[in-house]
Amino acid sequence: MTDIAAPTRTFRVPSYALIGFFALTFAITWGIVAVYIVAPDWASASFGEISGSHPFFFLATWAPAISAFALVLFFGGIGGLKSFLSRLTLWRVSSFWVFFILIGIPIVFVLGSLLKGGPVLTPMSPEGPGAIVSILFMMLFLGPIEEFGWRGVAQPILQRHLAPLWAGAVIGSVWGIWHLPAFFLSGTVFAAWNFLPFFIGNVTLAILVTPIFNSARGSLLWPMLFHWQLINPFWPDAQPYDTWILVAVTVAVVWWNRDTMLHREGALTEVIPDDGGRTQ
Fold first, then answer.
1. What pTM does this model have?
2. pLDDT tens sequence across 14-41
3. What's phi and psi for 227, nearest 5 deg?
4. Is position 145 within any domain?
5. Gyration radius of the chain's alpha carbons
6. Within a domain: residue 270?
7. To bridge 271 with a disulfide, which of 6, 13, 89, 122 should be the other Cys (CB 3.0-4.6 Å)?
8. What domain count does the chain have?
9. In a domain, 218, yes or no
10. Rounded to an integer, what is the distance from CA 159 to the centroid of its chain?
């Protein structure tokens, strides 16, 4: 008697779902921030001063992930969500990208800091290294969580219709605009930054992470580690030199990977892998 393998299930998130993803993401984040911009005294008295450790700041930051999970559950149910989360276990990627994430990004920040006359590493806190380590782990639950949305949902859907270079540019533009209200909040780090270099940096980084994402066949692990390195508190403040260095690096990376960055063939296009673990 011959065993018959069970059919593989595939949950497809349709392209039009991207509109819902963006709409829900902006509604959550901008809705929270709007309260503090429009009625700052009332919001502070009712919920406390907004800061990088405030629960509302976490909620606003998690909006892309919340939207991604909502869409995946809607179109794929619990089974689809499990398959979606399996993308966290996709660890195989070119050794070049491993080196770039672990070593290359820190070099960019150190070089940028030295160009502006700054230190090699962030000056030690009076509370000792433990304070910076605590911030490092807190950061793990901020920016990297966004990748469930940007690379988890938006990137695959956009790559159905655009070459990876342009898909990354679109996500970077949306990502930058999504941050805009935070620049009007005095209790956050964004208040001291200039938006234009930040926006350029967002577009640059979204393009730069694209070949990593596709090389790892839709892995969420490596984009999350990439994002974590960008906000690692051990790396010194290198603005705006880090942005310009990353722009140059991105131009070189796009040129080097032009065959895959300028064509849709081979790009990952599915949000939810099938039961066999394939993402396309």
1. 0.89
2. 999 999 999 999 999 999 988 988 888 8
3. -65, -40
4. yes
5. 20
6. no
7. 13
8. 1
9. yes
10. 16
